[in-house]
């Protein structure tokens, strides 16, 4: 007697069964998407694997088949987030529009786009920054990613170092980035407080931050260009 499998029946009907590996990837993607949504809304302490299961439609058993628990899932989501931000920053840094652009014109455009990447990822970043206080893996991974980002942006700005009158242009550019990032973070409520979202406009904050950066760079001899 010849046994007929479910896959054989599917093929005889002109269909192909979905590869198990592909189904596994789809299930994992659903779990990660659900975890991201729940963490962005409720923070690390405000979500459970049961909620992830309900949100994703993936069973608890299947989730535990991929992750040892909530912490490992959170670490995976964190790494995915940082990889996405790294890709966005790389696209920003490699933009051919910067070629030949004077520092005075470059700074507002560059920092505006940095701010928007930050804002787009703020809900999840906030959850992880709070969690990092008690999670050394998230703390170390996040810190490493941040300083790599700083070095890459400073390296881009250093291509305009000759447009400043300073012996330490790298420190000046580093201060610009760190101070602006801190301002954006405070507004977006990254940390233990909500920030100033209800007190001022995001566009106004970006504009004022750019004005302060340009004024600061002018004190260090930034070359002025005509509009």
Automatic annotation (TrEMBL):
The keyword Transcription applies. GO terms for molecular function: DNA-binding transcription factor activity; transcription cis-regulatory region binding. Gene3D superfamilies: Tetracycline Repressor, domain 2. Residues 1-26 are annotated as: Disordered. Keywords: DNA-binding, Transcription, Transcription regulation. This is TetR family transcriptional regulator. Residues 48-67 bind DNA. It comes from Paracoccus aestuariivivens. Residues 25-85 form the HTH tetR-type domain. InterPro entries: DNA-bd_HTH_TetR-type_CS (IPR023772), Homeodomain-like_sf (IPR009057), HTH-type_TetR-like_transc_reg (IPR050109), HTH_TetR (IPR001647). Pfam families: TetR_N. SUPFAM superfamilies: Homeodomain-like (SSF46689). The keyword Transcription applies.
């Amino acid at each position: 007697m010849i046994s007929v499998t479910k896959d054989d029946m599917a093929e005889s009907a002109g269909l192909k069964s979905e590869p198990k590996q592909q189904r596994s990837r789809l299930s994992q993607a659903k779990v990660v998407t659900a975890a991201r949504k729940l963490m962005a809304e409720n923070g690390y302490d405000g979500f459970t694997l049961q909620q992830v299961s309900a949100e994703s439609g993936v069973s608890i058993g299947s989730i535990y088949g991929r992750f040892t628990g909530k912490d490992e899932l959170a670490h995976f989501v964190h790494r995915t987030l940082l990889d996405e931000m790294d890709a966005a920053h790389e696209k920003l840094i490699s933009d051919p529009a910067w070629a030949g652009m004077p520092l005075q014109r470059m700074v507002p455009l560059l920092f505006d786009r940095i701010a928007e990447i930050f804002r787009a990822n703020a809900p999840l970043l906030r959850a992880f920054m709070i969690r990092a206080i008690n999670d050394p893996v998230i703390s170390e991974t996040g810190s490493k990613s941040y300083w790599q980002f700083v070095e890459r942006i400073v390296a881009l700005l250093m291509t305009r170092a000759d447009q400043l009158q300073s012996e330490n242009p790298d420190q000046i550019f580093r201060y610009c980035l760190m101070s602006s990032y801190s301002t954006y973070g405070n507004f977006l409520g990254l940390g233990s407080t909500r920030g100033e979202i209800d007190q001022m406009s995001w566009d106004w904050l970006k504009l004022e931050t750019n004005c302060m950066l340009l004024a600061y760079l002018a004190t260090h001899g930034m070359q002025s260009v005509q509009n």
